[in-house]
Design goal:
Chalcone isomerase; five-stranded antiparallel β-sheet; binds heme C; alpha+beta
C-alpha cells in the first residue's frame, strides 16, 4: 500500500466509524439477508413518530421461538423494521385506508436490532440498549448515514426488553 491510499483508507475508516456512532453500528450488526422471506412479519402499523410513515416489523426464528416458549428474546434474536414513506395522493396528502393505515410508498430504510451477550468491548453499553445492538440500512441493504440516537430512544424501555413493539412480539403464536 502506498502512502496516499493508506491515508485515504484511514480517512474513510474515520468517516465510517463517525457515521456508525451517530446511529447504530453496521460494522457490528449485519444486514440480515433474506429476512423478508425467512422472518415473521409480526406487526405492520403507522409509525409512532407522527410522520406519514409505515413500520413493517419482522422477527427471526430465534426471537419467535423464545417468545413462544414464554421467555424474552434470546441471544441471537434479530428484529427488522422496514420503514416506508406513505404513498401520496395528487394533492400531496398521504393516502389512508378505512382504518387510518397509510398506504405503503417507497421503502426508505431498514432498521435492525440484534441481541448478543458477547459484543466486542468497543461496542460499549452506552451505545446499546441492554444486549441489543442497532444498525440502519437503505433499501438495498447498504449502511445508511443518519443522526438517530438509536440506543437513547430504546434504552428507557428496559421493562419490555427495549423492544417498543414488545406486546406484539410476545403475542406471536397466540
Ligand atoms: C425517536 C425515538 C427512536 C429512535 C431515535 C430510534 N427508534 Fe427504533 N423504534 C422507536 C419506536 C417508537 C418504535 C416502534 C415502531 C414505531 O411505531 O415507530 C421502534 C421500533 C424499532 C424496531 C422494531 C422493534 C421494536 O423495538 O419495536 C427496530 C428494529 C428499531 N426500532 C431499530 C432502530 C434503529 C436501528 C435506530 C437507529 C438508527 C432506532 N431504532 C432509533 C423509536 C426510536
Amino acid at each position: 500500500m502506498n502512502m496516499k491510499s493508506g491515508a485515504l483508507g484511514l480517512a474513510l475508516l474515520g468517516l465510517v466509524s463517525a457515521m456508525a456512532l451517530a446511529g447504530g453500528r453496521p460494522d457490528q450488526v449485519p444486514f440480515p439477508e433474506g429476512y423478508s422471506t425467512g422472518f415473521k412479519n409480526y406487526v405492520t402499523r403507522n409509525r409512532a413518530n407522527g410522520k406519514p410513515e409505515i413500520a413493517k416489523i419482522f422477527a427471526n426464528e430465534t426471537a419467535q421461538q423464545s417468545v413462544m416458549a414464554g421467555g424474552q428474546p434470546a441471544p441471537g434474536s434479530v428484529l427488522v423494521m422496514e420503514i416506508y414513506k406513505a404513498a401520496m395522493d395528487a394533492a400531496g396528502k398521504p393516502i389512508k385506508d378505512g382504518e387510518g393505515n397509510f398506504k405503503r410508498g417507497e421503502l426508505s430504510g431498514i432498521a435492525v436490532m440484534q441481541k448478543r451477550t458477547d459484543w466486542p468491548a468497543d461496542y460499549v453499553a452506552a451505545d446499546r440498549a441492554g444486549d441489543w445492538g442497532f444498525a440502519l440500512y437503505d433499501s438495498r441493504g447498504q449502511p445508511k448515514a443518519n443522526e438517530l440516537a438509536c440506543a437513547g430512544c430504546h434504552q428507557p424501555f428496559k421493562n419490555q426488553d427495549f423492544v417498543l413493539t414488545y406486546l406484539k412480539l410476545v403475542g406471536i403464536g397466540k
